[in-house]
């Protein structure tokens, strides 16, 4: 999760920051190293790990980015009651919800895909597919 590729540098930085904030890893002269707390974290059940990570993520984004904690929690609860595999529109989402959604997608907790709409005819008669982004919840 921490040693990702170049294309995921933004995600890697976010994850590193959260791991350091939660004292799961510490940075030193030789890079990031796992702490005792981090090792204990690895022994927890996956669902406990996810919630621990989300709680620490919320602490970071509310303190450092000004996200509204109540709005974030409300959106997380809304996602938790969503149906797996069903597409949900992003229309009407607030800036905070959109930011939270994009972070959850980067962390691999929400799946987002492009959905093909009805085929439209362009001027030269060839078909062109319109695309709109929906969110498929994967928790």
TrEMBL record:
Q: Where is this region: Disordered?
A: 116-139
- Swiss-Prot/TrEMBL keywords: DNA damage, DNA repair, Nucleus, Transcription, Transcription regulation
Task: Name the InterPro entries on file.
Answer: TFIIH_p52/Tfb2
Asked if the record carries the keyword Nucleus, the reply is yes
User: What does UniProt give as GO cellular component?
Assistant: transcription factor TFIIH core complex; transcription factor TFIIH holo complex
| Cell location | Nucleus
- Where would you say this protein principally sits, based on its record? nucleus
What molecular functions are annotated in GO for this chain? ATPase activator activity; double-stranded DNA binding
Q: Where is the composition biased (Basic and acidic residues)?
A: 124-139
Its BP terms in the Gene Ontology are: nucleotide-excision repair
Q: Which family does it belong to?
A: Belongs to the TFB2 family.
Q: What does this protein do?
A: Component of the general transcription and DNA repair factor IIH (TFIIH) core complex which is involved in general and transcription-coupled nucleotide excision repair (NER) of damaged DNA.
**Name under which the protein is recorded:** General transcription factor IIH subunit 4
Origin organism is Geodia barretti
């Amino acid at each position: 999760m921490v040693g990702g590729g170049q294309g995921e540098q933004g995600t890697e930085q976010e994850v590193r920051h959260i791991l350091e904030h939660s004292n799961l890893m510490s940075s030193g002269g030789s890079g990031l190293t796992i702490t005792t707390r981090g090792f204990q974290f690895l022994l927890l059940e996956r669902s406990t790990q996810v919630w621990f990570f989300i709680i620490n993520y919320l602490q970071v984004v509310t303190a450092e980015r000004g996200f509204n904690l109540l709005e974030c929690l409300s959106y997380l609860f809304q996602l938790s009651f969503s149906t797996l595999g069903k597409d949900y529109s992003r229309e009407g989402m607030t800036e905070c919800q959109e930011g939270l959604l994009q972070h959850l997608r980067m962390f691999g907790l929400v799946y987002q895909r492009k959905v093909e709409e009805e085929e439209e005819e362009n001027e030269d008669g060839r078909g062109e597919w319109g695309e709109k982004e929906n969110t498929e919840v994967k928790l």
